[in-house]
């Protein structure tokens, strides 16, 4: 099973009438038989639009059964899909549609006019087709005809653009083999079965949802419950009503759920585990979630460049390590120094990854591709951390976000986690700001809990006790929310703009 078509074919052959996807709001569902038939229909539709094998098809659509069907149909047919981030600024979205060289865009009805305006001035012709994301695909087999040639493992399958917080977005090139390899790895890591169903609250234009909630269930013939968008008020009801057995979330969602009501244990009894990804989860939030909801949390970490997870804690709760993103999963990982050489366990450096899930490179950007890899082929993640003697990795920050105060390296996450222990603080993020004497000083941006009262002096005294004088922020900035990218990661560089 080295392509997405292989995964779909095996699942449909095993139990064609099993449900693959169900819509939480309408109850409409998609069986594996219908999924396979829909893939064939999508292939015929692409041929009729003149979209040749290997060409790129963009999607500007929110979550829905039709979105799932189109994404998988394009992959099955050997086309490259480009899910566009709906939270992008219009200039960035137009850049992605231009740069991707897409020849066809599927767009939700309320996006069609905007998309047509974006592609109108492009130097090539781009067809825009309106599709209702909630439309239930037909179950009937398409008219007789020959299926397109199957894609090869090396064919480009997914072109997903990074958030572009420090410049124009970069198009990450992922092959059929990359996608299949990580689907198999995720399924094995979490011991997924045909009876497992995940609550798919994350947007499918994000690599986490694309790989974990959409592709991983295909391996054993499991299923996903498709949610239009995350709602803290409806989350537990959706999980119960859809009979979900596992959850796939990001730390931001865990933070919001901890602020909400506690469901009765009978409502969460069927949920085996909750996996958290995309950013480091504060240990206090992990402990709070497990104690409050009675569901174990598996912390994982990955990149768009690695088809989502490349690190995972074990399924066995006794073997998980609090504060760790786990062991290498489906790949090799090591820690390297500034000279790109491996360092011993316990020494902080940059995490590097090598394996079948690692991207081919950045689309039409050879310079960025070269910079992303070491000379011997390891992907540089930009994450700072260390590995312990048991092979577990711990993340302390981002290479570009490291605060260097008076020559001392300070990991922003250490300050974040200290502030989160204050009872009035809901969210916190530290960032380096220019300083005449130290080179950089520390500013902390803080979101207070509803109804909580706290001033700068109180937080400063709290940090002096928890962190010591050198790591205590010089400035505190109270904000309504923290800027985040599409994966839920805090965009610290934007916080720096708040400095006086």
Descriptive notes:
By secondary structure, this protein is of the alpha/beta class. The chain has two domains: 384 residues, Rossmann fold (3-Layer(aba) Sandwich), CATH 3.40.50; 97 residues, GMP Synthetase, Chain A, domain 3 (2-Layer Sandwich). Strands 2-1-10-9-11-12-13-14-15 form a nine-stranded mixed beta sheet. It has a four-stranded parallel beta sheet with strand order 4-3-5-6, with helices on both faces. It has a four-stranded antiparallel beta sheet with strand order 16-17-19-20. Strand 9, helix 7 and strand 10 form a beta-alpha-beta unit. The longest helix is centred in the N-terminal third of the chain and has 17 residues.
Largest sheet: 9 strands, mixed
Number of helices: 15
CATH level-two architecture of the largest domain: 3-Layer(aba) Sandwich
Uncertain stretches of 5 or more adjacent residues: none
Number of domains: 2
CATH topology of the largest domain: Rossmann fold
End-to-end span in angstroms? 55 Å
Mean pLDDT: 92
Question: Structural class per helix/strand content?
Answer: alpha/beta
Counting DSSP E segments of at least 2 residues, the number of strands comes to: 25
- What percent strand? 25-35%
Global shape:
globular
C-alpha-based Rg, rounded: 23 Å
The CATH homologous superfamily of the largest domain is named: ANL, N-terminal domain
Strand order of the largest sheet: 2-1-10-9-11-12-13-14-15
Q: Output the CATH class name of the largest domain.
A: Alpha Beta
Helix content: 25-40%
């Amino acid at each position: 099973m080295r392509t997405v078509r292989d995964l779909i074919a095996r699942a449909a052959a095993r139990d064609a009438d099993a449900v693959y996807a169900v819509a939480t709001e309408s109850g409409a569902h998609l069986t594996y038989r219908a999924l396979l038939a829909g893939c064939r229909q999508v292939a015929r539709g692409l041929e009729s639009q003149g979209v040749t094998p290997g060409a790129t098809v963009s999607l500007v659509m929110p979550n829905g059964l039709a979105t799932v069907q189109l994404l998988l149909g394009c992959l099955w047919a050997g086309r490259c899909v480009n899910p566009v981030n709906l939270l992008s600024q219009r200039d960035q979205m137009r850049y992605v549609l231009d740069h991707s060289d897409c020849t066809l865009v599927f767009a939700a009805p309320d996006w069609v006019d905007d998309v047509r305006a974006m592609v109108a001035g492009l130097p090539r012709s781009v067809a825009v087709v309106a599709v209702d994301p909630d439309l239930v695909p037909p179950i009937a087999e398409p008219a007789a005809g020959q299926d397109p040639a199957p894609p090869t493992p090396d064919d480009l399958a997914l072109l997903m653009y990074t958030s572009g917080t420090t410049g124009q977005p970069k198009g990450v090139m992922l092959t059929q083999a990359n996608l299949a390899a990580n689907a198999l790895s995720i399924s094995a890591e979490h011991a997924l079965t045909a009876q497992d169903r995940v609550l798919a609250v994350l947007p499918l234009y994000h690599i986490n949802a694309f790989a974990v909630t959409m592709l991983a269930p295909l391996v054993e013939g499991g299923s996903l419950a498709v949610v239009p968008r995350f709602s803290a008020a409806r989350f537990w009801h959706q999980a119960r009503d859809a009979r979900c057995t596992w959850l796939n979330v990001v730390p931001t969602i865990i933070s919001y759920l901890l602020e909400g009501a506690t469901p009765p244990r009978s409502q969460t009894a069927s949920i085996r585990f909750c996996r958290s990804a995309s950013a480091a989860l504060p240990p206090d939030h992990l402990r709070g979630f497990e104690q409050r909801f009675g569901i174990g949390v598996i912390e994982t970490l990955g990149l768009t460049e690695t088809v989502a997870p490349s690190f995972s804690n074990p399924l066995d709760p006794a073997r998980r390590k609090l504060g760790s993103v786990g062991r290498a999963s489906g790949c090799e990982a090591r820690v390297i120094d500034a000279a790109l050489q491996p360092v011993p366990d316990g020494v902080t450096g940059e995490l590097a990854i090598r394996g079948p899930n690692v991207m081919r490179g950045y689309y039409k950007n050879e310079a960025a591709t070269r910079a992303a890899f070491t000379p011997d082929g390891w992907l540089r993640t930009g994450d700072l951390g260390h590995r312990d003697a048991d092979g577990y990795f711990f993340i302390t920050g981002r290479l570009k976000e490291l605060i260097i105060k008076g020559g001392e390296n300070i990991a922003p996450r250490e300050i974040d986690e200290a502030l989160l222990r204050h009872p009035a603080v809901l969210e916190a993020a530290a960032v380096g700001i220019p300083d005449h004497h130290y080179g950089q000083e520390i500013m902390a941006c803080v979101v207070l809990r509803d109804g909580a009262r706290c001033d700068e002096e109180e937080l400063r005294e709290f940090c002096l006790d928890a962190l010591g004088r050198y790591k205590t922020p010089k400035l505190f900035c109270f904000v309504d929310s923290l800027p985040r990218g599409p994966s839920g990661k805090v965009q610290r560089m934007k916080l720096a703009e708040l400095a006086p």
